[in-house]
Amino acid sequence: MEALPKTFGPVVPLHVAIIMDGNGRWAKARGLPRAIGHQRGAEAARRTVQGAAELGIGYLTLFGFSSENWSRPATEVDDLMQLLRFYLEREIEELHRNGIRLSVIGDRQRLSPAIVRLIENAETMTSANARMRLTMALSYGGRAEIAMAARRIAIDVAAGRIAADRVDEDLVQRYLFTADMPDPDLVIRTSGEKRFSNFLLWQSAYSELVFVEKHWPEFGKDDLAAAIQEFSGRERRYGRSA
Which EC numbers characterise this protein's activity in its record (predicted)? Predict the structure, then answer.
């Protein structure tokens, strides 16, 4: 990979979100069980988190498990949950040592009580860390998040806590899982697919998109840097004229 330009640092996006796609296809292409693909995907996540911190990214959000993934075969869901539990048990100390704060967004009610406790412990342990914020989207769906926000707003309007005419985009933003985070500047998807798959639908309205042909288990810091370099050459107009 070519060296990054000297001006690379100032144009690193504040928030990068990644749809980690292709674990199963990577495994299938090699005649391996899907569980191995997910294990290699977890290793890619570890590399990417470390690389993002080294590149100076402030917020990294990884799409780990969607609300639709619950419909996968029970054995695969069990493998994914065991891998998640292993990650939460074994990786949090390293995240903490490296000054990385962990947060999780999504529907925790569908996760096991043991995993929810691990998530809560990890969030508490790392809450004061400021080097980078790592957010894992687990049991997450963008439409469900927006519907949840709408329900909460409706309840507050009915209770008289807010007036209906005060409901605008800024107020809706405050009811989302990501209320205390900036919107993603850059969304990356691996494995060559070109769709959002119900990920951060509200937050990605003006995100730059980069699609990477590699399957997720092959992804690493150099690929992240290449995506950021592509991002740095784009002009972001937010609907305004050039």
Answer: 2.5.1.-
